[in-house]
Amino acid sequence: MADILYTYKDSVYANITNKCNCSCTFCIRSLRDGVGSADNLWHEKNPTKDEVLNAIRNYDFSGYKELVFCGYGEPTCELDTLLEAAELVKKEFGLKTRLNTNGLGNEENNRNIVPELSKVIDSVSISLNAPDAAKYQEVSRPKYENGFDKMVDFAVKCKEQIKDVKWSIVDVLPEQDIEKCKELSEKNGIQLRIRHYS
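Predicted structure:
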């Protein structure tokens, strides 16, 4: 089985699924099999909820500050596993939890999942990827129509119920797109993180 938990810097990451509802042009999945301490993040089949929970129960979290749901798939595609794993790590290990997401979890689950997330997730990082719908469609290639608007709506809903919400972009975007992303962030009151693309 591929790694369910792996580390990067001072965080532990949970790779709970390889399912994804986007096919981003820059996705790291097309470049290599692993990241951080993990050599292989490709599951032959998705781990079961029990496998994820057991991996957490048997992990030594000493020295780590948070558990981040981020792997080679979109965590909200396995929402039940995500919610139970987040609750477990908070209750049994006292860790903070973060969700790295493409922001399309409401569409994936056919409902507003933010109230459920807000009970067990401390911070959310949402991939903005582009400043407008046309460029988002071109870069993120979501399986849903109007993906950009749905992602923005998800971010706004998260901001209403979760204290720490950020959008992220990579620094390879043209300068004018970065400026437009900053304007969008200011308009919606959501912090923008510009990540270095390696």
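Summary: The first strand starts at residue 5 and ends at 8.
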